[in-house]
Specification:
With 400 residues, the protein is α/β, with parallel strands linked by helices. The chain is built from 14 helices and twelve strands. The strands form three sheets. It has a seven-stranded mixed sheet, sandwiched between helices. It has a three-stranded antiparallel sheet with strand order 9-12-11. Helix 4 packs across helix 10. The longest helix is centred in the C-terminal third of the chain and has 21 residues. This is Succinyldiaminopimelate aminotransferase apoenzyme.
Length: 400
């Protein structure tokens, strides 16, 4: 067996199951899960129809590079969403369909990392655990950049030593962040591109929450926006990851894309032809329909706005919680230990959240997720309100 498997830590939800497995929740309360970030809003009906209308295409072997029509739809969406000049993003060379960002982030790391004793993969801390596992199985070491409140829950990139940048092969970004919801500012993205040029590393921007934001007049920037602002038409060292899971409430479709540096994607495509991960033709056709429509995406944001407004009105008077810049999470400060808070809340109120320390790694004795929990506002509005009311009641019962 691959000895690197021994370095993988249990997934946060395994830890959560272990924590809560012997706890008996209040029998008079129905369970409410704010733990898993699985969208619960309805999937677009027109996407389902497109899928159903093309089931005869299941008899066709799909190509790894995907249908030209899908890559064109993705290219058009990127141009409109991130302000790219027409022609910069070439559908034939700068775009590659993938089976969701989780699969792509892992596979991309295997393709990009050049195995050496010095290789580092940098990621935010707390973080999406795929970044860590992908780095270890690619033969690199993860290096964690703490995301603290005093820095707006973004890493302090200025504090990273030059020798760490020099060893870096991939820098993972997540904006809006999981679990913090923090955005990476455009100025920071430009600074990171300059660092990538100086030290020759790849920026892998996980932007799967990019379409969950609050101000319709000011969509958050992404790494492609920074490339456009810099006149960087070759997207050198820059790759973005997008998905229909959160944007369109289609987590089961397993559809997304990677876009950016053509030379990197050429090598990644070669890797994927051996990896055997082509997207089925019916899925590709359904994806085209989803990427070509924005009405359902705006309606989706409206639903999340309503939940944030209602839940924050209940929780802000009783605990330290702020509206994030984006995503569907609340990154909540707990009165005391986050693991005890999670266990006791489940026992007394039958509400499930995730301890922040399960989503982070301790570095030099400090875990930046400790003392916080992640709450995913994915349940229907009424359930989110009831969960917030139960949390408020739980807090009132704590010793002062």
């Amino acid at each position: 067996m691959n000895h690197a498997l021994n370095q993988l830590q249990p997934y946060p939800f395994e830890k959560l199951r272990s924590l809560l497995g012997s706890v008996q929740p209040a029998p008079d309360k129905t369970p409410i899960a704010l733990s898993i970030g699985e969208p619960k809003h309805s999937s677009p009906a027109f996407v389902a129809r497109t899928l159903a209308d093309n089931l005869d295409q299941l008899a066709v072997y799909p190509t790894t590079i995907g249908l030209p029509a899908l890559r064109e739809a993705i290219t058009s969406w990127c141009q409109q969403r991130f302000g790219l000049p027409v022609g910069w993003l070439d559908a034939a060379h700068n775009v590659l369909p993938v089976n969701g960002t989780r699969e792509a982030l892992f596979a991309f790391t295997q393709a990009v990392v050049n195995r050496t004793d010095e290789a580092l993969v940098l990621s935010p801390n707390p973080f999406y655990q795929i970044y860590e596992g992908a780095a270890l199985l690619a033969g690199a070491q993860p290096h964690y950049l703490a995301c603290l409140a005093e820095n707006g829950f973004n890493p302090d990139y200025d504090a990273v030593p030059a020798e760490i940048w020099q060893r870096c092969q991939i820098l993972f970004l997540c904006s809006p962040g999981n679990p913090t919801g923090a955005l990476t500012p455009l100025a920071t993205l430009k600074k990171l591109i300059a660092l990538a040029d100086q030290h020759d590393f790849v920026i892998a921007a996980d932007e799967c929450y990019s379409e969950l934001y609050f101000d319709e007049e000011n969509p958050p920037p992404g790494l492609l926006s920074a490339c456009a602002a810099l006149g960087r038409s070759d997207f050198k060292r820059c790759v973005v990851f997008h998905s229909l899971s959160k944007r369109s409430n289609l987590p089961g479709l397993r559809s997304g894309f990677v876009a950016g540096d053509a030379q990197i994607l050429k090598a990644f495509l070669l890797y994927r032809t051996y990896h055997g991960c082509a997207m089925s033709v019916p899925t590709q056709l359904a994806s085209i329909a989803a990427w070509n429509d924005e009405e359902h995406v705006r309606a989706n944001r409206d639903l999340y706005r309503a939940k944030y407004d209602a839940v924050l009105a209940i929780l802000q008077p009783v605990m330290d919680v702020q509206r994030p810049d984006g995503s569907f999470y609340l990154w909540v400060k707990t009165p005391g230990d986050d693991i005890a808070f999670t266990r006791d809340l489940f026992e007394q109120q039958h509400v499930t959240v995730v301890p922040g320390s399960y989503l982070s790694r301790a570095v030099e004795g400090h875990n930046p997720g400790a003392g916080r929990v992640r709450m995913a506002l994915v349940a229907p509005l009424a359930e989110c309100i009831e969960a917030a009311e139960r949390i408020r009641d739980f807090l009132k019962g704590l010793p002062s």
